[in-house]
């Protein structure tokens, strides 16, 4: 019986020791194993899981565009407040792919990323053939740009506008407004003021956006330093741009806006946007989950488009107007254009009150990025921006009428996408599920080791308990009184017999 207990105790002890050893090994080596797998699979390397996602983005991206129609153009020309009606969305499926991928010896890779857009009428509220009344962006923009030129130049332009039957507001199709139309005014302006608008061809809000690239990016691969992966080394060969008035505002910081270095902290992230001509910083808002994948949500701070008075670091982006809009004229051929959040969300209330028809809300108009912090890969995102034009009466150009100075919303758009299907499954299995299993196993093994070792110790103690053979002299053994006979002494000492027996 004791031997069986000893064997059981040894078996339980060995099992408990093995569980403890495995638990400790996973506790010590598990994080290193997970980290190695993450590093291996998020760096820009043809053998990594994320390389295919980086090269040809498999996530379905959509560009949704909302246009603002002016309902009272005649009244606006007479100084009235513009009344706007939001039209759309006009939705486009966006495909992105990289070409000219060239790896360099300094741990960087260069590439051109192209985007192609295809209209999706089934997802849209309207067609590209619909007509919308909007400001004559080219004419009104050129008027403001020529405001400080001699009067005879402005009168010359005004006469040319009359001859071309150009008016302050136009009624054109959605397709023309977005993707361009032939406008003889373009050649006329460049003839009157050579180089004022230095481009030829069609004029539209998104001309050059479709079937085009975002410039030559050179980013770090992370092969030598994973903390630098996806960080921009240069854009079009530049370490900084020259659009703005301060070094800080001109710096090209962060990534190209697609992925970030792994093992993120809940603080902030940065990316360079060629469309906005600047680097942007988003701040951590909250932790959450997207289809089972843990995420950090990053949003735009109120200071993103604040003016230099409210936020001094933004002084380099001036000349500024109210907070909530950023002057991008220096990177848009000096045209009086501004970017903001849709419906002037998070902007100075005076901008919203200057027009009718805007209803800013966080749910519909705030931009966000949901990023998996362990890998730095976005799970779900929606980048929302609005394009605005500064309109006013310009003396000498009668077509501008009596327009009250106003920053008028033209359109807002959202580039949105999220990981789904087989891509999400592969990502979840390799970079979420397996690390989680390893994390849980270490505690399971450690938890099992405790009762096994305790059970082994108890059985070992039980097997070591001493056993004794019972004898007549054992005080615990009940005895029967000896039978008396005629020859038995009445005063016989029973202890003597025991001693005698022991001696025998």
Structural class: alpha+beta
Average pLDDT reading = 85
Instruction: Estimate the strand proportion.
Output: 25-35%
First-residue to last-residue Cα separation: 32 Å
Number of strands: 15
The number of helical elements comes to 12
Description:
With 504 residues, this protein is of the alpha+beta class. The chain is 31% helix and 26% strand. Helix 1 runs antiparallel to helix 11 and helix 5 (151-163) packs antiparallel against helix 7 (184-192). It has helices spanning 2-42, 49-55, 73-77, 137-145, 151-163, 174-179, 184-192, 247-250, 349-353, 362-365, 421-463, 494-503, and strands at residues 61-70, 84-103, 108-119, 131-135, 169-173, 212-220, 232-235, 268-273, 278-290, 293-299, 325-327, 337-340, 368-372, 377-391, 406-418. It is built from 12 helices and 15 strands. Strands 1, 2, 3, 6, 7, 8, 9, 10, 11, 12, 13, 14 and 15 form a 13-stranded antiparallel β-sheet that branches. A hairpin with a 4-residue loop joins strand 13 (368-372) and strand 14 (377-391).
Features:
13-stranded antiparallel sheet, 31% helix, alpha+beta, two-stranded antiparallel ribbon, 26% strand, disordered C terminus, 504 residues
Architecture blueprint of SSEs:
Blueprint: H1 2-42, H2 49-55, E1 61-70, H3 73-77, E2 84-103, E3 108-119, E4 131-135, H4 137-145, H5 151-163, E5 169-173, H6 174-179, H7 184-192, E6 212-220, E7 232-235, H8 247-250, E8 268-273, E9 278-290, E10 293-299, E11 325-327, E12 337-340, H9 349-353, H10 362-365, E13 368-372, E14 377-391, E15 406-418, H11 421-463, H12 494-503
Antiparallel strand pairs: 1-2, 1-15, 2-3, 3-6, 4-5, 6-7, 8-9, 9-10, 10-13, 11-12, 12-14, 13-14, 14-15
Helix pairs in contact: 1-11, 5-7
């Amino acid at each position: 019986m004791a031997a069986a207990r000893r064997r059981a105790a040894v078996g339980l002890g060995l099992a408990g020791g093995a569980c403890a050893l495995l638990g400790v090994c996973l506790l010590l080596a598990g994080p290193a194993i997970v980290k190695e797998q993450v590093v291996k699979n998020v760096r820009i390397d043809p053998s990594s899981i994320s390389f295919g996602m980086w090269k040809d983005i498999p996530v379905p991206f959509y560009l949704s565009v909302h246009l603002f129609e002016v309902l009272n153009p005649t009244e606006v020309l007479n100084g009235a407040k513009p009344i706007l009606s939001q039209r759309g969305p006009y939705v486009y499926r966006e495909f992105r792919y990289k070409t000219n991928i060239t790896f360099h010896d300094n741990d960087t890779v260069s590439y051109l990323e192209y985007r192609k857009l295809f209209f999706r009428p089934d997802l849209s509220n309207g067609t590209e053939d619909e007509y919308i009344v909007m400001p004559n962006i080219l004419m009104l923009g050129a008027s403001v740009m020529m405001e400080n030129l001699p009067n005879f130049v402005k009168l010359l332009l005004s006469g040319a506008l009359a001859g071309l039957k150009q008016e302050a507001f136009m009624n054109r199709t959605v397709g023309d407004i977005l993707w361009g139309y032939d406008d003889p005014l373009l050649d006329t302006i460049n003839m009157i003021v050579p180089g004022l608008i230095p481009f030829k061809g069609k004029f539209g809000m998104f001309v050059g956006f479709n079937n085009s690239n975002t410039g030559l990016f050179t980013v770090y691969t992370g092969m030598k330093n994973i903390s630098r992966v996806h960080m921009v080394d240069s854009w079009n060969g530049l370490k900084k741009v020259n659009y703005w008035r301060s070094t800080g505002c001109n710096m090209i910081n962060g990534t190209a806006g697609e992925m970030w270095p792994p093992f993120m902290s809940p603080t902030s992230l940065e990316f360079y946007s060629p469309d906005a001509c600047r680097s942007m910083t988003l701040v951590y808002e909250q932790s959450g989950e997207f289809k089972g994948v843990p995420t950090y949500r990053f949003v735009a701070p109120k200071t993103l488009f604040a003016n230099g008075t409210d936020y001094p670091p933004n002084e380099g982006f001036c000349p500024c107007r109210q907070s909530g809009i950023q002057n991008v004229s220096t990177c848009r051929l000096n045209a009086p254009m501004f970017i903001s959040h849709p419906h002037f969300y998070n902007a100075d209330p005076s901008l919203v009150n200057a027009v009718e028809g805007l209803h800013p809300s966080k749910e519909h108009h705030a931009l966000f990025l949901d990023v998996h912090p362990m890998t730095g890969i976005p799970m779900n995102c929606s980048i929302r921006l609005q394009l605005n034009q500064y309109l006013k009466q310009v003396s000498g150009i009668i077509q501008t009428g009596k327009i009250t100075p106003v920053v008028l919303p033209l359109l807002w758009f959202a580039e949105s996408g999220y990981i789904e299907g087989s891509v999400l499954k592969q990502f979840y299995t390799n970079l979420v599920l397996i690390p989680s299993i390893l994390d849980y196993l270490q505690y399971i093994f450690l938890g099992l080791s405790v009762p096994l070792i305790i059970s082994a110790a108890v059985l070992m103690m039980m097997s070591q308990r001493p056993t004794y053979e019972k004898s007549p002299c054992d005080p615990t053994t009940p005895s029967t009184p000896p039978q008396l006979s005629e020859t038995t002494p009445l005063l016989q000492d029973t202890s003597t017999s025991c001693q005698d027996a022991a001696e025998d």
